[in-house]
Every structure is written in C-alpha cells, then in structure tokens.
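Why does residue order matter? Because the sequence determines the fold. Keep that principle in mind as you read this record.
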Amino acid sequence: MPGTAGWRAEDHAVWQLAVEHLHVRSNDAHTAYSYGLAVALCDLHPEADRDVVLPAIILHDTGWSRVPEKEVLEAIRPGGGRADLVVRHEKEGAAIAADILARLGHDPARISEIVDIIDGHDSRTTSLSLNDSLVKDADKLWRLTPHGVDTVMDWFGLTREQALVLIGSRVHDHLFTDAAGTMARALAAVARIDSTPQRVGLG
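Structure:
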C-alpha cells in the first residue's frame, strides 16, 4: 500500500478510508496507478481542480466492493458485459465517496462535483467538465500500463497480443484530452515492445 511519499497528505487520508473498498479486481493497485496518472494529467492542465480530480480518482471504483465478486468481471467481459452492474458500481461508489469525504470535512461543493463525476464515470460517454475528463482519462490510461496489461490478461485469459487489441479498442478513441492521447500512445508503444521477440529474448 502506498504511503504519503508521492501523495498529497489530504489524498493519503482519502486513500486510508477508501482502500477497504478496493480489494476487488485489483482495484487497489489500479487506483494507485490511476492516481499517479491523474497527477501527471493535472500537471499538464493547471486549470484543473486537484481537490476534485485526485479524490475522485481515488474513490471512483470503490463501488465494486458492493457488487458480488463473482459478477464483477461479467460486467466488463469482452463481447458482452452487464451495463446494470456498471451503473450499480457507479451509484455505490458515489455514495461511498460522499460518506468518506464528508467524514474528512471536505468542501461540500467539491464533494457534490466528485459525486457527480463518480456517478457515471464509466457509463457516461460525455464529459461534465475538465475535471471529469481527467478522471475518465486517468482511469482508462491505467489499462495500458504494464500492470494494467498483465491484469487484463489474467482477468480474461488472454495472450498479451489479444489483451493489447482489447485495451486499445477501449482506450484510444475514448479519451477526452490531447495529453491523455499522447500518454496513451507512449504507453501502448512500450506495451507492444514488451511482447516482441527482441525484448522477450533479453529475459
């Protein structure tokens, strides 16, 4: 679990209350990587509100903890999926976020914005704001990280090449910011090289 190093103290406080809800589907590691990506996106968009984006990315997938674990992957499986479960995890995550942020004394207006972002972060195909765009983009970019690729392979029993095709179809045309698009291309380039004979042969 991450400590405060590399994290804002106020975000670490959110993490400490959120992490018990992130045990499903490697969401703890997914959230930690997505937090780092969200920080990078905020660095490239100084007009964004970090006090919205960063708590939102920490809390966005907490709702999966209230979906039966055996049904979680059914919600997002290739060639199918359960839209009702996706919406359920958004609604549950929004409720968890509201509770945690209120307990920590966050600004009510920011809590309202964070809850709105989480409630629809996967099912809503449009963006409410720049803050929403950065949360959505950080969430999707994780799939292209080495941890994301390995996790998707494990979830669905895919080869690396199959996982990269699936991930690409769910990321590249679904990002909202140019910065995220550039980051996605860089991460995809690394992921592709990782599966080449030249790289594999190096051990």
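The longest helix spans residues 83-103.
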